[in-house]
Amino acid sequence: METILLSIKPEYVKKILSGDKQYEYRRILAKKAVKRIIIYCTYPHMRIVGEVEVKNTISMSPLDLWNATSDKSGIDEKTFFQYFSGSENANAYSLGKVKKYKKPKNLMEFGIKFPPQSFQYII
Predict the structure, then answer these.
(1) Average pLDDT, integer, range 87-108
(2) Between 112 and which of 42, 66, 105, 107 could a Cys-Cys bridge form, CB atoms 3.0 to 4.6 Å apart?
(3) What is the rounded distance in angstroms from the CA atom of residue 26 to the CA atom of residue 93?
C-alpha cells in the first residue's frame, strides 16, 4: 500500500479537511494500491496542509459514479461532468480519516521540487 501526493485546489482542500468532501475524483488512479494521500494545496497557498486515509477506490461510468457519490462529492454536478467529459470511466478515492497539519509544510520537506500535475508516489 502506497502513499501519494496529490495537487488539489484550495476550495476542495477546505472541503476535504472539513469532511464535506469524501471523494477525490481522478481521471486516472495510481497503478499501485493507495492507503494515504498527502494533500498539496495549490496556488495561492502552495503548501502541504495535511493527509487523508484512502478507504478504497471506485471506478465506473461518470453517471454511475455521480449517482453513487454526489451527496459527499464536495463539487457541483456541472463541474463533475465537465471534468469527466469524454471519459468512459470515472474514478474516485473514497476518503477516510483526515489529519490537518498544525503547520503547513513545503514540498522540499518531502524531497519534492515541483508539485505533481497528477500525483506522485511518496517513499
Answers:
(1) 97
(2) 107
(3) 8
Residue 100, classed as helix, strand or coil, is strand
What is the spatial distance between Cα 115 and Cα 6, in angstroms, rounded to a whole number?
8
Cell (9 digits) for 72: 459527499
Q: Report the alpha-carbon distance of residue 100 to residue 42 in Å, rounded.
A: 16
C-alpha dihedral sign at 118, 31, 51, 103: negative
Could you read off the pLDDT of 14-65 as tens digits, one per residue? 999 999 999 999 999 999 999 999 999 999 999 999 999 999 999 999 999 9
Distance CA(86)–CA(104), nearest Å, equals 36
Asked if the model's pLDDT at residue 123 lies above 80, the reply is no
**56 to each of 61, 79, 80, 106, 122, how far by Cα in Å?**
17, 23, 20, 27, 18
**Sign of the Cα pseudo-torsion (31, 35, 37, 38, in order):** negative
